Amino acid sequence: MPKKITKDTAVVHASIDAEANHGIVNVPVYHASTITSPNLDDYRNHRGRYDYGRIGTPTSEASEQAVAGLYGMDDCVSAPSGLSAVCLGISGVLACGDHALFPDSIYGSARKFVENILPRMGVEVEFYAPLISGDEMAERFTAKTRLLYLESPGSQTFEMQDLPALIACAKRHDCLVAIDNTWGTAFHFDAVAHGVDVVIEAGTKYIAGHSDVSLGYVIANGATAKRIREYARFTGLCVAPDDHYLALRGLRTMHLRLRASEANGIALAVWLEAQSEIVAVLHPALPSHPQHQAWRRDFTGSAGLFSFVFDEAIPQKAIDALVDGLAFFAIGDSWGGYESLINQAKIKRTIAPLPQGTLLRIYAGLEHADDLIADLEAGFARLRDAL
Ligand SMILES: Cc1ncc(COP(=O)(O)O)c(C=O)c1O
């Protein structure tokens, strides 16, 4: 294989070894708990490549290596959900007595882990405003700060962090940087080039991509990767082989689905921006987004996930009339599949201000943009009737 290939080609060919598999293209699904050794000496000395199902099989390895390769990092450790990958990536590098910094706009379930579990482990946690500057961030570091956690854009509110400045600040303080890159994906945010040490991606979303798998990946290099793998191993984290298979199968078309979802997301965001009841569309790829320039500088594309905010005068019952009658936008949270979604989540913030007015989040799936826009048009007609 040529040394430098595009990510499009990488996802199509990653982890395929048809020759070793009777010519069959797809990676076999090994269901395994027991893995036996041919003799006691091999068993005692762990000579087999695999020796315990939970610790790894050709199926889990294929899925993990495909994602590690996509990010250009040494290793990738899988976990049974995106959230458990977040917890693994954080716990794997922290220890009792450490101080760690998290954005106020962190994914809501990750926030619950950070607020409720990390302090029990003796980790001091501190939240920071997602739009903090590098200079302001420098003041947060103490001798005990071990981890700067990033998530850009912010969950539900889509603030784009000043990633280069924040990462540079962490490096000056000899501190590890982790990012939840589920929105950016390996296609749109080059975490390694930006100096990130630990990348977390919910494979549940665009990688698996068909709304039927929960799984997450933590990607890292060298000693950091080793610590994370040890943590996963010592705490018994593992993913069912069928889920790895589905994730790998999803990965083959991820680039195409991502682009289609991205294009639909932009089309919907542009359409929504023109509606008089909407005061803001929080989509980083729109020139009206306050951190649009940061997105352009750091990312090469966008996910089809964004929010929009109604004028405060619009009552909830009119918004309900809009949403409840939609034909193609199901009401739900776990995005990245083929179908479009809409939600109105409870958002917790203790530092960053929330937009005034009702905020809805859209995930643009793979339907035709014209049908999605027609669906929203009918929805806005219902909203206007209900005013
Ligand atoms: C940014 C982000 N990270 C992590 C997760 C968690 O993924 P999972 O649902 O697989 O636990 C989500 C889920 O919505 C998410 O949006």
Quick structural summary:
This protein has 2 domains: 7-251, 3-Layer(aba) Sandwich (Aspartate Aminotransferase, domain 2); 254-385, Alpha-Beta Complex (Aspartate Aminotransferase, domain 1), CATH 3.90.1150. 36% of the residues lie in helices and 15% in strands.
Query: Which runs of at least 5 residues are low in confidence (pLDDT < 50)?
Result: none
CATH fold group of the largest domain: Aspartate Aminotransferase, domain 2
Task: Sum up the overall morphology in one term.
Answer: globular
Could you give the order of strands across the largest sheet?
1-7-6-5-4-2-3
Structural class: alpha/beta
The ordered H/E elements are: HHHEHEHEHEHEHEEHHHEHEHEEEH
Total domain units? 2
Bound molecules: pyridoxal-5'-phosphate
Question: What's the count of strands?
Answer: 12
For the record, give the distance between the C-alpha atoms at the N and C termini, rounded to a whole number. 61 Å
CATH H-level superfamily title of the largest domain: Type I PLP-dependent aspartate aminotransferase-like (Major domain)
Q: Which assembly state applies to the chains in this document? A: single chain
**Share of residues in helices:** 25-40%
Percent of residues in beta strands: 5-15%
Structure commentary:
With 387 residues, this protein is an alpha/beta fold. The protein folds into 2 domains: 7-251, Type I PLP-dependent aspartate aminotransferase-like (Major domain) (Aspartate Aminotransferase, domain 2, 3-Layer(aba) Sandwich), CATH 3.40.640; 254-385, Alpha-Beta Complex (Aspartate Aminotransferase, domain 1). The chain is built from 14 helices and 12 strands. It has helices at residues 7-13, 40-44, 58-71, 82-91, 108-116, 134-138, 163-172, 185-188, 222-234, 241-251, 254-273, 292-298, 316-324, 369-385; strands at 75-79, 99-103, 124-128, 145-151, 176-180, 198-202, 216-220, 278-282, 305-310, 330-331, 341-343, 359-363. The chain has a 7-stranded mixed β-sheet, sandwiched between helices. Strands 8-9-12-11-10 form a 5-stranded mixed β-sheet, with helices on one face. The model has no long low-confidence stretch (mean pLDDT 97). Pyridoxal-5'-phosphate (PLP) binds at residues 81-83, 86, 107, 155, 180, 182-183, 202, 204, 214, 216, 333-334.
